[in-house]
Amino acid sequence: MTQALEDQRALVDKLAATLQARMLSGELVSGTRLRQAALAEEFGVSRTPIREALRKLQANGLIELRPHRGALVRAPSPREIRDAYEVRAELEGLAAELAAQRIHQEQLDLLHRSQAQFREALAHTIELRSSAVAEFDPAEETERWGRANDGFHQTIQAAAANDVLVAMLLHLHRSYPRDLTRTVLGESATLLAENVGEHEAILDAIERRDAAEARALMSKHVRHAGSLVTIRLEQRR
Asked: I want to staple 26 with a disulfide (CB 3.0 to 4.6 A). Which of 143, 212, 219, 236 is the partner?
């Protein structure tokens, strides 16, 4: 694959993810018409990547292409999101259970590093927010600790050593990305601190090789996030 093609594909993925996050957050409600020309102007790109991004969203069931009306948003309901998080909670719980049984020392070290990065990133965000400094960029800070959070979960899934499980979780994350959780957690320093504590408990259970406890804690962690996201979405609607 040429570099140009890789760059084009990355752009399409980014555009699709941005629009998807707006739909799932309630910013773009069901029935909203997505005009290619307006989107191309907003993102500073040609219509070609916009068209490809819309096709990708159509394949995921998030938009409908109707004759003479173009692309219309079909944002999932709060119930659909709640259902997805319930399934994800069970799958991620299973991943934590298997990780506690199968994790190697190198993966455990990586998990500790991911958690340390997550803890430090959140502490930095809270400090900047409390001091109200001019250079505070909420989006940049959310992206920073979001990457660390993703690394934590992905390391656990890799340690589970179950390709089918990882593929199912990847499908869920594409349909209902973690950006939803990031948005809600980013609104509250208390929720951020709670999230750090939940990660610490999961890591401790995995390190002690307590598979049952690791599963229960991870499932509770994801269900908690799903509850927060669903409540926020219902409030916005």
From this structure: 236
Contact predicate 156/187, CB 8 Å: no
Residue 188 sits at φ, ψ, to 5 deg, of -145, 125
Q: What is the model's pLDDT at position 25?
A: 66
CATH topology of domain 78-236: Four Helix Bundle (Hemerythrin (Met), subunit A) (1.20.120)
Q: CATH number for 3-73: choose from 3.40.50.150, 3.40.50.11720, 1.10.10.10, 1.10.3720.10.
A: 1.10.10.10
Listed range (62-66, 102-106, 135-139, 175-179) with the worst mean pLDDT: 135-139
Supply 217's token pair.
Answer: 């804690």
Q: Please name the amino acid found at residue 154.
A: Q
Q: Is 71 left (phi over 0), alpha (psi -120 to 50) or beta?
A: beta
**Long-range own/partner contacts, residues 185-191 (CB < 8 A, 24 or more apart):** 185/225, 185/228, 186/125, 186/138, 186/141, 186/142, 189/126, 189/129, 189/130, 191/228
Count the Cβ atoms, other than its own, within 10 Å of residue 205: 22
